[in-house]
Every structure is written in structure tokens, then in C-alpha cells.
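#lab-general

N.A. 3:47 PM
ok so I finally got the sequence cleaned up, no stray characters, all 385 residues accounted for. can someone with queue access submit it? mine expired

B.Y. 3:52 PM
send it over

N.A. 3:53 PM
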Amino acid sequence: MQSLRLILTHPRYFAPAWVFASLNIWFGTWAIYIPLVKEKLGIDKASLGIAIFFLSLGVFTIFPVASRIINRVGVGKATWYGVLVSSVAAMLPLLAPNYYLLMGSLFLFGASNGFTDISMNTLVTEIEKEDRKNFMSAAHGFFSLGGVIAGLGSFLIPVFGNPALHMFLAVLLVFIINLIFHKRYLHITAAPIEKEPFSFNLFRPLLVIGLVSFIVMGSEGAIVDWSGLYLQEISMAPEFLLGAGFLAFSTSMTLGRFVGDGISARIGSVKIVILGIGIAMAGYVLVLTTYTLLAITGFALIGLGFSVIIPELFRIGGNVRGVESSQGVAFIAGTGYSGFLMAPPVLGFLAETASLKLSFVTLLASSFLVLLAALYLLRKGKGKK
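B.Y. 4:20 PM
back already:
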């Protein structure tokens, strides 16, 4: 919890951590109104899926150019600009009067969120380098906390009765706090690195880290989408427990991220990835027993194991020799988002053609690949403290 205390007692660390929370407050508030947007515009599920695809398209469009912009303007300023643009873009989907403007507004929302995501992770990487203090995991904990805050905001839907007003108040609150603290990081620029000629050996560690990011975030996306159905169809859980798997997963992930930095400082980035994937694999074994309470416990262990992995991947990716921190972070973010978006439909197809239980066996097997990749990085001496 030392990194959490660091964030809560020092504005220098709270400022970027609040950007993490902001990103998920914006996105989470939009997400709770998706059914109302569908109803308001009179579109079917297929059309809604296409519109949401434009959000993903915006994210992927910005990834290739984000690092250049960040390096040109400075990571501190880039993060602040991301906050400014995202604050405006968050309003647009709920104001869209027709389907085509919804697609356009979601594209802009996705692009601004993607840019902010890369900027804020690069910012934390650079502050960690300057101060020799770890708080990346706790910053990601604030991202999870932002989702909790947005979720609690769903109780205000009957109070406001107006999605755009709700989003405006959320944006206003988020923006005011960012405005107060943004000067703490505005001046920060990425430390210069000694660039090296491109070689596969130089890029190989980043490819391995990207593979881990793809699998872990893909698994996260699968659990978000399929945990409830698994409890319903495989575990035969009662209706009131159908959301318990996702709740256990999310809660343990949030808590794990607040303690991850201290463990990482003691054992190193790669070893904590190995520890995390080991815990997650134990969780998958419990889920595959199919017993309801064991499965829910398993989802909690998976969340706990995953909680420390993605922050460490950003930390490792931002410190690869001969690669600019923003480029490393952008690559990890790109591969991770690809997995998050691609894995759920692929596993859904597998569940439809075979069984949902087989989908989770596949996730367990994928976790074994993560373990092998982490052991490779450990052998190569990556992420040592």
C-alpha cells in the first residue's frame, strides 16, 4: 500500500493517477447509457455493434502516431491535451442526434481516449525513472477505481433523467480536479535515450511483452463478457449470483493493483508477472471445477493475478533498451487492446461451436503461454531491479 499512500499524500503522484481514474469515469459513464442511446436512436444490436466498432477504430487509428506527438510536445503536455480533448469528446456520443453522428463521435471518443491512455502510461513511466519510485500499479488501480465511480453513477440515472446532463456533470468534476493538479506534470518530458539501429534482437523483448499483453487483456475482455454466462450455463448458479464472478474479478483486481508496486519493488517486474499468472492459472482451475462458489473464488483469483501484470508490462515496455518509452507503451497498449477486442468474439464462436467450458480451458492454456514468455524474459534478464 506504500504506492497508494504516495499517491494520496503527494500531488506529483496523485495528478497522473487521477488521469487514470478520469479515463474510466468518462468511458464508464458512456457505457451505462448504451441501452438508452440504442433506444433513443431506434437502432438494432447489429447497428449498435458497428457504432461501437468505430470507438475501437478511433483507438487503433491514434496508436501509430501517438508516440510521435508525445515526443514532439512533451509527455506532460500531451497528457494534459489528452484530458482536454477527451473531456469534450466524452460529451459527443450522448448528444448525437442520429446514427451516423454517433459513429463519428465514438470514433473521436476512442481516438482521444487512446491518446490519453498512451500519454498517461508514458508519463508514469517517466516519473518512475526520475524519482526511482514505483506507482504504476497503483495508478492502474485508480483506473479500476474510476470504473467503480462510474458504476456507482448508475444510481443517479433516475435523478438526472438526462444522459447528456449526467455526462456533463461527470466531465465537469473530472476536469476541475485535473485542472487543479495538471501543473504538477505539465513540464515533464521523456528522458533522452541512446537510439540503436533496428535489429530483431533489440525488438524481440517487446514482441514477447506484446504477446503477453495480447493474451492477458484478451482474457480480461473474455471474463468481462462471459463470466456471467459461465455461472449461469455451466455452474448453474442462482440468478442473484450471476454477476458475482465479474464483481469478484473487478474487486480483487482493484485491490491487487494497490499492493502490486511494493511487491514489484522487492522481487522485480518479470517475477511479479510470473507470480500473477500463477495465481490466475490457479483461479482458472477453480473456475473449471464448475462449482458455483469455487468458480466465483476462481474469478477473484484471476482478477488478483491479472491485476499486477498489465501495469508491469507498461513499466517493462517503457524501459526497453534502445526504444523510446512512448513507443514501447504504445506497442503494449496496441497489442493489449487488440486482445481485449478480439478474444471475446473468438471465444464466443468457440463456445457456440463446442462449449463455453472449452473456451475457459483455452484461456487456461493461453495463460501457460504467458508463463513461458515471462520465464523467457526472466532468463534474458529483463525487468530486474
